[in-house]
Amino acid sequence: MKEPTHTEIDALREEIKQNQERSLEIHSRLKVVERTHWLSDKERQSLRELEKEHREVDTQEWKLKERLKALSRHRKIDG
C-alpha cells in the first residue's frame, strides 16, 4: 500500500464533513415529516425514500471514517 498523502487525507476529511452535513439535513427533514400525523401515499413514499437515503449516508460516513483511520494509521506506522 502506498503511503497516503496529506491531500488524500484532507480530501477524505472534507468528504466526511460534507457527508455529515447531508446527514443532518436529512435528519432535520425527517423530524419535520415525523411530526405530521396525516400523510398522503406520495408523502409516505417520499418519507421512505428519505429514510433510505439517510441510512445510505450514514453507511457512507462510517466507511469514510474507517478509511480515514486506516490511512492515518498507515501514515503513523510509515512516518
Spell out the blueprint of helices and strands.
Blueprint: H1 6-34, H2 41-78
Helix pairs in contact: 1-2
What's a quick, concise take on this entry?
This protein has helices spanning 6-34, 41-78. By secondary structure, it is mainly alpha-helical.
Descriptive account of the structure:
By secondary structure, the protein is mainly α. 85% of the residues lie in helices and 0% in strands. The chain has 2 helices and no strands. α1 (6-34) runs antiparallel to α2. The longest helix has 38 residues, at 41-78.
Key traits:
single chain; rod-shaped; mainly alpha; 79 residues
Radius of gyration: 18 Å
Average of per-residue pLDDT values: 83
Task: Determine the fraction of residues in helical runs and give it as a percent range.
Answer: over 70%
Largest sheet: none
How many helix segments?
2
Shape: rod-shaped
Category by helix and strand content: mainly alpha
